[in-house]
């Protein structure tokens, strides 16, 4: 009897197949893991329903590091980190609270992205300009993530998704070398 490699090598269209044992997929367990940022998906200029203001959503992709012991090499995606944008000064639009950018600043700090500090000359209060970043800016940074399971219903069936939240920079971790993989 032919094995799967023999069958696939005879296919002229690249083939498509299904192996039932692949259904035995094990989700990454909830917990804290050392990981590296290996990709970044960005959704630009979404409109916030409540306020009508704009934001970008940064969705880093993390690869669990060898030092984790379990689930090594598994990829976990972030649910998203919002970067709320200030409306133009003359627009008359409501200014979004800057506290919503706390998670984005934490993300930039974990990736060692330099921030410009601005001090108010009247009260000495600091604010930070939060730049946009690209995949190339943050690729390979060592971080600690918390993996959580989220349940949802689809077509009457209860399902579980896996989502990672950035905790902080992984101080002892080494940055991965630049990827030679294509980003698509």
What does this entry look like structurally?
With 184 residues, this protein is mainly beta. It has one domain (27-169). It is 10% helix and 38% strand. It contains three helices and eight strands. It has helices at residues 4-9, 102-110, 135-138, and strands at residues 31-47, 54-64, 75-77, 81-84, 116-119, 126-129, 142-154, 157-169. The strands form two sheets. Strands 1, 2, 3, 4, 7 and 8 form a six-stranded antiparallel beta sheet that branches. A hairpin with a 6-residue loop joins strand 5 (116-119) and strand 6 (126-129). The longest helix is centred in the middle third of the chain and has 9 residues, at 102-110. The radius of gyration is 21 Å and the shape is globular.
**Could you name the ranges where pLDDT drops below 50 across 5 or more consecutive residues?**
none
Coarse morphology: globular
Our count of domains comes out at 1
Please trace the helix and strand order, writing H or E for each element. HEEEEHEEHEE
Query: Strand fraction band?
Result: 35-45%
Topology, number of strands: 8
Mean pLDDT: 86
